[in-house]
């Protein structure tokens, strides 16, 4: 592996550097309660996206005005899905095409920019997006579209270390924000539509050195690494060929493309896994572990402590990569997950035992419900796309109309959990698809689908809906409908507010209890990113990235046609209360 490492990271100085680090393990452990910074994706590693700040609240949010705005510039726009990080007077924000900026918090002036040199042959499935970075020591670390990890000096933007994660020519890429869990850097991989093999990697965040790898497709060997980089076997994931037939496990997908969360209370990291490959499920009878699942990992060893599969033998590209957000309920630690398949799951965060599962969208056709005793879905057999070998001349299987569509009841846009209300705030979409299977064979770097599809909206008046969900009862407490699909994340605060953005360009604030809209601002392009908030001195700020794009305009079929009037962009907006 090629690596660029500054001289001060020589072995003898690693300990002193770690001790003198700016961002420490202890700080990241308490990131969710820190109000003067935003140190990790999800606001805290648990992913609740809840801030205790209350200076901006339901009574005065109408006075929120822009403090400054910063343009990412150039011709490289497309989708902007990044969550900013805030630390020591700087904002660190990634942008499309594997760029990252450091911005002065007080003035909005650019301090430095790093623009990763991308090869011509990159193949991201769902736009040239990047969702954010991680902070550790004096480093800011992010992944690139050609499947590399880059660590930069926070003050200068100079490269400290750089590591190749995998081969972009084989379909691998990276779009998620890295996760720091108990001092360990955890990352996933993107590329499930190209027959990659999903995995989680653990590294030393100061050097980039590998600690362990854990594949998320059954049958692949995990590895650990000593201080000299020597590789040792660390156990096969699952049991070879137990849930995968033949050799399909070798190109089985299950990419960990959304990254993970970490809970210090359980000591576990939680990664969602994507669709099995190819989409044509008739080629791979069996559950196809550990695709479309939540996998709980021991951070120190890389061993799977438990796994829960949301969609066994996935035939609809529902994935299971959605975030697993841990929270307290009835004196126990649970995790909530709004899956692309349309069901919201409440799972014991320590054991993986299913507590509850219920729909959070209005139309689900592939299953009639989830059996709470077995944890398995009650499949509706007639809604599985047909076997192409039984179709006319073996070219195409029977077409079915399925809901949700493969872009999911919820996709990459992260939800939020309020410690005030005990509710989850889920950006949901109501759409379906005509889907059929086709013959397919694997070719390195080529699309590995074996399916065709057309997405259609289910209702005339809306597609997106922000829904307040009670994890105990399964009740939708309120909803705020939106004409276009929702594709940006959510934040909730101690001020009783829920912030989220829309493709039409608005950042909005709603009352967390009632769903009443209290404020909105037009950012000039679609918002497909999650907001953050922090306090500097005696002033609370709110920020969001604006820039329409992502998977909807690329894959959305009839839905894409409905929103093709939306303009691209690339900027970050920062707001504060007006002094008038």
UniProtKB/TrEMBL annotation:
MF term (GO), any: oxidoreductase activity, acting on CH-OH group of donors
Residue stretches in coiled coil: none
Cofactor detail note: Binds 1 Ca(2+) ion per subunit.
Residue ranges annotated for the Pyrrolo-quinoline quinone repeat domain, each copy included: 41-353, 465-532
Family recorded in the similarity comment: Belongs to the bacterial PQQ dehydrogenase family.
Gene3D superfamilies: Quinoprotein alcohol dehydrogenase-like superfamily
Disulfide bonds: 125-126
Active site: 317 (proton acceptor)
Keyword tRNA-binding: no
Cofactor: Ca(2+); pyrroloquinoline quinone
UniProt keyword annotations, A-Z: Calcium, Disulfide bond, Metal-binding, Oxidoreductase, PQQ, Signal
CDD domains the record matches: PQQ_ADH_I
Amino-acid positions noted as binding Ca(2+) in the UniProt annotation, renumbered to this chain: 193, 275, 317
Signal peptide: 1-20
Entry EC number(s): 1.1.2.-
Residue sites binding pyrroloquinoline quinone per the record: 81, 131, 175
Manganese found in the keyword field: no
Top-tier EC class: oxidoreductase
Protein name stated in the entry: PQQ-dependent dehydrogenase, methanol/ethanol family
InterPro entries named among the record's database cross-references: ADHI (IPR034119), PQQ_b-propeller_rpt (IPR018391), PQQ_MeOH/EtOH_DH (IPR017512), PQQ_rpt_dom (IPR002372), Quinoprotein_ADH-like_sf (IPR011047)
A single cellular component GO annotation: membrane
